[in-house]
Amino acid sequence: MPARTIAATPDAPDRLDVFVAANANVTRSRAGALIRDGFVRVDGTIRSKAGWALKGGEAVEITIPEAAPARLVPQDIPIDIVYQDSDVAVVYKPSGMVVHPAPGNPDGTLVNALMQKLDGLSGIGGEIRPGIVHRIDKDTSGLLLIAKNDFAHVSLAEQIKAHSVHRAYMAIVIGAMREEEGDIDAPIGRHPTDRKRMAIVEDGREAQTHWRVVESLKGCTLVECRLTTGRTHQIRVHMASIGHPVLGDPVYGPKRSPYPVSGGQLLHAYRIGFKHPVTGEEMIFEAEPEERFRMWVEKLGGSIVGMIRNSELTLR
């Protein structure tokens, strides 16, 4: 793709990545990658630092390379497509499925299934994550928003950054909650000694979770969690931090679980709402949890009908 040369005005953003994102219609993370890979020149000189300070008046040359074709193999994996049009799709990811290939999971992922089922995916996510705007953990079930072209991807990513995408989860947590609802505002980052875990750390990224009791269960509580931010393992880390880890969580739960849950944490992304990137229409989708989740609600004395009704009423 030909390079674009844009003059930085006196009131240009201080950071180079902010300027590139705004003027090349890409996400800030994508802008940072372009800068690091040498695709951005300032007054003819390659600048490889995303935080390079623009003083104003410089000529910024941006080259956006064509997206490399994904080397992933489309696979005919059954997956529930809740909605799709020419720009976006909403899909239901079952628990146990990885969102995109990673070490140890080269195929059989949601992306492999999407390549087979959908007629297009954005290239902004790169070769490994085409169409992926946000993720949920392998053992978490529920709704995911997929971008089918780059314009939609940028729009949806901006909505997520602005905290305007509505995401709500159902979780069975250990113990009885003392309050009916609450807010957790604690920064999340990599654990200082265990890099495979996340933790609440002083220099972590801003993270907020609002939780609300849906139903009291035997030794546990069914809660609804609404995310303002979307950090890695956010609900699992936040609920564990207040003494109520998600039941079945092998990473943040207790060494001895009060119940023999298999298959990972009982966490379900049941609701997602966003503004359509082209039409501007407000769109909301909901999905019931899997049989495994429903079984545990009933086993612990809860009501599936009550769970669905209460979750819908709180967010109308």
Count of helical stretches: 7
Strand content: 25-35%
Please report the distance between the alpha carbons of the first and last residues: 45 Å
Described by the principal axes of the CA atoms, the overall outline is globular
Write down the Rg: 21 Å
Question: Quick check: average pLDDT?
Answer: 88
What does this structure look like?
Helix content is 21%, strand content 26%. The chain is α+β, with helices and mostly antiparallel strands. It is built from seven helices and 15 strands. Helix 1 packs across helix 2. The mean pLDDT is 88.
Which key terms come to mind for this protein?
single chain, 316 residues, alpha+beta, 9-stranded mixed β-sheet, 4-stranded antiparallel β-sheet, 7 helices, 15 strands, 21% helix
Question: Helices, strands, pairings?
Answer:
Blueprint: E1 4-7, H1 16-24, H2 28-36, E2 40-42, E3 45-46, E4 59-62, E5 80-84, E6 88-93, H3 110-117, E7 141-147, H4 150-161, E8 166-174, E9 181-185, E10 188-190, E11 198-200, E12 208-216, E13 220-227, H5 234-241, E14 267-275, E15 282-286, H6 291-299, H7 304-315
Parallel strand pairs: 7-14
Antiparallel strand pairs: 1-4, 2-3, 2-4, 5-6, 6-7, 8-13, 8-14, 9-12, 10-11, 12-13, 14-15
Helix pairs in contact: 1-2
Q: Could you provide a short overview of the structure?
A:
With 316 residues, the protein is α+β, with helices and mostly antiparallel strands.
